[in-house]
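Data's thin. Show one?
=====
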Amino acid sequence: MHTNAARHRPLRLQTRLWLFALCVLMAGFATARAASLGDCDQASHATTLSASAPGTATDASAVWLNDRLLRWPGLSGANQYRLYGSARAAVQASAGNVVVGAAWQLPLTVSAEALPTDLAARYAYLGSGVQLQLAESDRQTMASQLSAQWILVQEDANRRVIRATHLQWPGYLDARFAAAADAALGTSVGAAQTRFRLWAPTAQAVAVCLYPDARATATELIDLQPDTATGVWSVDLNRDLHGQVFTYLVDVYVRGTGLVRNRVTDPYSVSLTANSKRSGILDLKRADTMPLHWGQRAKRLRRARATDMVIYELHVRDFSANDPSVPADHRGKYLAFTDTDSQGMHHLQALADAGLTDVHLLPVFDLATVPELNCAEPVITGSGDSGNPQAIIQNQKSNDCFNWGYDPFHFTAPEGSYATDPEDPRVRVREFRAMVQGLNQLGLSVGMDVVYNHTSAAGQDAKSVLDRIVPGYYQRLNAQGGAETSTCCQNTATEHLMMAKLMIDSTVTWVREFGIESFRFDLMGHQPRDAMLRLQAAVDAARDRSVPLLGEGWNFGEIANGSRFVQASQLSLNGTGIGTFSDRARDAVRGGGPGDNDQRLISAQGYINGLLYDRNAQGSGNTQDLMRTADLVRVGLAGSIRSYEFQDYLGQTKRLEQIQYGGSQPAGYVLEPSEVVNYVENHDNQTLFDINVFKLPTATSKDDRARAQMLAVAINMFSQGTAYFHAGVELLRSKSLDRNSYDSGDWFNRLDFSATDNYFATGLPPQQDNGATWGLMRPYLNNPGIKPEPAQIRFARAMFLDLLRIRASTQLLRLPTAAAIHSRLRFANTGPSQIPTLLVGRLDGRGLVGERFQALTYLINVDKNPVSITIADAADQDWVLHPVQRSPRSADARLRKDSRFDRATGRFTIPARTAAVFVLE
């Protein structure tokens, strides 16, 4: 044993002896064996020290409201109620019998006390039930014995059990340990001291195992001491442990199991060893955690506000795994973003030079599903409707190198599979920072997709971290005490004090230590609005400027319609400046909805792929359907501002909030344009090219397929608000019709930055999410007239660059306020007599400081035929094509040749499937 460990042994022994004496005095406190160094290297991640007595309920139906009141939903006040406790998990409470094995018995009284407003709102979802109160004289007993097993029992007059249940503890812990909100957690390292801090208020003991590296056995075991005010366990060591690694041993009661010793990593880990086995002890200011010149890296923030943002959503592995110009050992890794001569980096540089401002990375925090050592890269071939590629992927998906990564393991540590050496915690930090630095040097800000709404596992699973430290606290629980799973996995409860703190502390670390400048929140509607506002203030303070927040504001699941708290959802964020993705224009542009997985994939055509004006064989819809859809697209073009008005297809002047979406929601739903994110494609669902495969008539030419795709891009680029694009939309990216490629391997997620192949028709997509529609897919996958040639891919890329340049050239397409949109944007060609395939928006630039154009008019013709329109107040004005589009170097020769404006009449003529921008200079 090392000298420093020995120095801690006397204290540790004294502590154990004191606890033993206390156990005897209190008739039944824990007698579990003390942890030893051998526990640090056990094969199992958990050891049961004292199993729960048989016959005791395993549900948790009663809920603590604070540290003295609880509610048992569904029960009345009849009979009597009592809490029974045991530090050894010895309580046996079976129906019809008297409780045995308890060290403590705390009687409860029925309470008619009215709850404070905040508590009443927080627990309204529970419904009615008996409200019980802990006697004042027993509150200290409960406070001092939180680490015990506690069972709530309803008894008859003879003390026989009628019902028994465990309790849901978050309300109690939040009330009892409110001071923990200000506690510093995790590790901190200095030249002469290393500190460990872990919030574990229900633990009986906590110790830290120290290891010199990822593979060595433990060299020391050191006890942490609890703070009764915060529930934080801590120890300060008078030495510098930078670069070493550790785990915790946490002795804690686990419902349904008993007293358990969990070996677990730190929830506040900033780095780990391979496959998240051990947490790294790092000083993030040390040189070995930084790439060269990290502290002096270029920070060319190219946008002043959220409405200036043009975001490119990119997966780290997608970026380079398929790029032969990247060194083999960098492919699929962070370091690919440092290879400045690669095809991918040249592509990003071109996008940045044209006006792209941000790259948003799909999850780069520590993931649970990708092996970080020796992951498989299966060799796959196939084309057309072959089932072989997907079969190989399905067979390998548990150990291959690919996953989107929406399965958090540790929220604040970089993912190790993207590092060249996952075993060394310093390497993944250094290489993550090198990636950020490489993107910054292109002039791009870096944002990241964060997933605080669920964990990949809960309970005693080996990949559960939070729930093995404070069981039943961090997850959102259902009526029986199980974790809610509406998000796909085990939902977290950011309405709880310390889960919200973890989320906020995590984002602050990403901003302060890793150079992240914006966040996209997965399923943000599962977060409380208040927590997101506190997070916004914290990251702004850490960055010393506004950090844009955006996310999925979908309203569903157990928290839908504010059932547990005011959500950070589409209809609840007005006035916050936090952005949500808009499904309104997305669905109108694409057609149908994201859940379509049947014939509607074909029949539900959208605005840019033929609704009425270019019907496919199964298409439907009438003129009113097309005009109603055009109105939804205009809603998006106007930034979805609630109060903005235009004449709808029926001839009525309406505010956007009066236009219906989906039959029950307002189409316009935000107060300010910073609160809406416009998109037509992202990682979810089919790519735009693939959805157009289904919806465009089969005979549509390859050139027109490219044009239809760029019409959708143009609509998005011209819409007020934040513009968001999925990597590859500019390359006609296909996933061979895959509707959910989260675990479809590299094969179905490839990108080709040489603009040679879009990877359409490279096999049937994986059966799990696509098998039901394989019959619909086969004819398209076997049709050689659909897959684009390099000429169409390069045309689309050039068009995308032109559209970026147009948006970057003028403030008029990125107005910062609703007031500016009200005063400067007007739609022409609206109402019942409109040309329904033509969108016309006029923007007034007069008096706008720094604006280069007096006015701008965009005309988007989605029809397969040219169109002309006379706009009376345009007559006698000198409207000319935007400089980008009239340049001999512009992508679209048809636009230069066939777009016209007649000054005498105010008549514009626009070619088929074209988006034209005219300006007054």
